[in-house]
Amino acid sequence: MKFKMAASMDDMKKLMKKRDEIESEIKALHEVLDSQKGIGMNEPLIDSEGYPRADIDVYTVRHARHKVICLQNDYKDIMKEIEEGLYKIHAEARQKQAESSTEETPSPTSDDALSRLSPFLVIDKVDEGSPAHTCGLCVQDKILKFGSVMSHNFQNLQNIAAVVQHSKDKPLSVRILRNEKEFNVTLTPKAWSGRGLLGCSFLPIKKT
Per residue in 163-178, is it b (16+ CB within 10 Å) or e — as a string? Predict the structure, then answer.
């Protein structure tokens, strides 16, 4: 199944809803497989003598397995569409930001505007020697701006993952709040000796 390229936040919400529905379907199918002696996706359907197993419903298991494989393919497609859609939205936001910075009137991303940004993520782990550690990020730093992602357009961590993926080996501007003071750091997502491209993890900050 192919999904149409998302062009707006409304399209993104529809895709994310579809993603959640697929996740729910896959979970339900795994529960069906678990009900069949916990057979899973790879256990054999025949006994030691080569006959269909009598202790499970072979048809139900085959149907569930086939459906899971189809849904997993759909899930990969929709996650790709979500990632590309988020990147397009953020790219447009960066373009607007660049255009507005050339105007004489104050830009919405001026220092005054940035100082009014609300934190939407907090760093809960930073691995030593990672890109995040190298650029100076610390545990408990709060994120005010991550590339083009800010509190008003942040939905979930997939937003951050998309920006990171499309900013690999490129400098990324991050604005943080630390001990009630704001700082700008330049983070370059890249492969290193550990996992991921950043070497840190975030927790969303619940809006009050």
Answer: bbebbeeeebebbbbe
pLDDT in tens, 97-127: 666 554 444 334 444 444 468 999 999 999 9
Q: Cα 158 from chain centroid?
A: 2
Considering only the C-alpha atoms of the chain, give the largest distance between any 2 of them, rounded to a whole number of Å: 82
Q: Among 179, 169, 119, 125, which residue's Cα sits nearest to residue 149?
A: 119
The 10s digit of each residue's pLDDT in 162-193 is: 999 989 999 999 999 999 899 999 999 999 99
Whole-angstrom Cα distance, residue 90 to residue 7? 11
- Tell me the backbone φ, ψ of residue 137, rounded to 5 degrees: -70, 145
Q: Report yes or no on whether pTM surpasses 0.90.
A: no
Residue 164 CA, distance from chain mean position: 9
Count Cβ atoms within 10 A of the Cβ of residue 48 and give its class: 0-12 exposed, 13-18 middle, 19 or more buried.
exposed
